[in-house]
Amino acid sequence: MAQKRDYYEVLGVDKNATEDQIKKAYRTIAIKYHPDRNPGNKEAEEKFKEAAEAYDVLHDPQKRQQYDQFGFNSPGGGGFDFSHFNSMNMDMDDIFSMFGDIFGGRAGFGGFGGAKRGPQQHRGADLRLKVRLTLEEISTGVTKKFKVRKDVPCSHCHGTGAEDGSGTETCPTCHGRGVITHTTQSILGMMQTQGVCPTCNGSGQVIKNKCHQCGGTGVEKGEEVVEIKIPAGVAEGMIVNVPGKGNAGHNKGVNGDIQVFVEEIEDERFIRDDSDLIYNLLLDFPTAALGGDVEIPTIQGTKLRVKMEPGTQPGKTLRLRGKGLPAVQGYGRGNGDLVVNISVYVPKTLTRDEKEAIEKFKNSENFQGDAATKRSIFQRFKNYFS
Hints:
Elements: H1 7-11, H2 19-33, H3 42-58, H4 61-70, H5 92-95, E1 127-133, H6 135-140, E2 142-153, E3 168-170, E4 179-186, E5 189-196, E6 205-207, E7 219-230, E8 239-242, E9 258-264, E10 270-273, E11 276-284, H7 285-290, E12 292-297, E13 303-308, E14 317-320, E15 338-345, H8 352-361, H9 365-368, H10 371-385
Parallel strand pairs: 1-9, 11-15
Antiparallel strand pairs: 2-7, 3-6, 4-5, 8-9, 10-11, 12-13, 14-15
């Protein structure tokens, strides 16, 4: 008989490993060497058993303390004995129920990991809708109404699926458990796996006399007007989940949800940048040169009066704090900003008088630009092409 390896060595962890580290290490090894993945491989089977034995000791604080102090000669005996499995009529859920927290309960790998499933309650399917929103609607939030065609509780049996209140009785196939067991021969002996009962679909009950209108499902096709509140600040691609407004579950099961996919309608005035809004202001030349007041629209529907300084240059940016979009619930705080990019309009055509007026100033130093401005423009031009 081969000499036992140190349990910490088996799992590949050190003696100061935390419970989570031990759990993670065992899960990795167990999945790698599980018999379902390595049929007929005796070496993999032994490593699988070895890892399970090591985990059984190290995940239990008392057993681990005894093992750390006494090794394999601990008073409690330690270890996890697989030898009795072949002589017992146990399914994989029984064998590995102690490891259920590692393998995710019902969704365990290879048919193991967690307690047995009992009778299941039917859940209705989810519905998916699409909503197109303007920036104005996004800025305030909006309630939209949808006429939805979906499964609704049967109007005749009120969702029970039974005719004239005849009720249900225990499923004769699974005897109320909601699952049936299949026994197969494996390298570990006789093993059992479970599946949803095909007679009752996992509910554990069958209807004595099925409703003539819905055929015993408890649902029928219908329509419902659903009001859905879209929170402020949502963005393209986001999904708003509305619990319990989807398809009705069979036989008074739980309703599904509605998932609303957000589409954003392009705005003619503003460009969105997360919660900021960008507005391109085309300033006339006299106001840029002499200064003056201009009106800036906001997404809130108001207009802000902003003073332009004399000599305002094209490319200047103003930031109006808090005049952008609100952060969506749970994804930030406050409002974004309204960023104003300033361009200066140069007319393409001029009258004779306009041309003569501009010619008078053509050679003026103020219209030539100072040296610092020229250097700045040259540097920007150079950086652009570098």
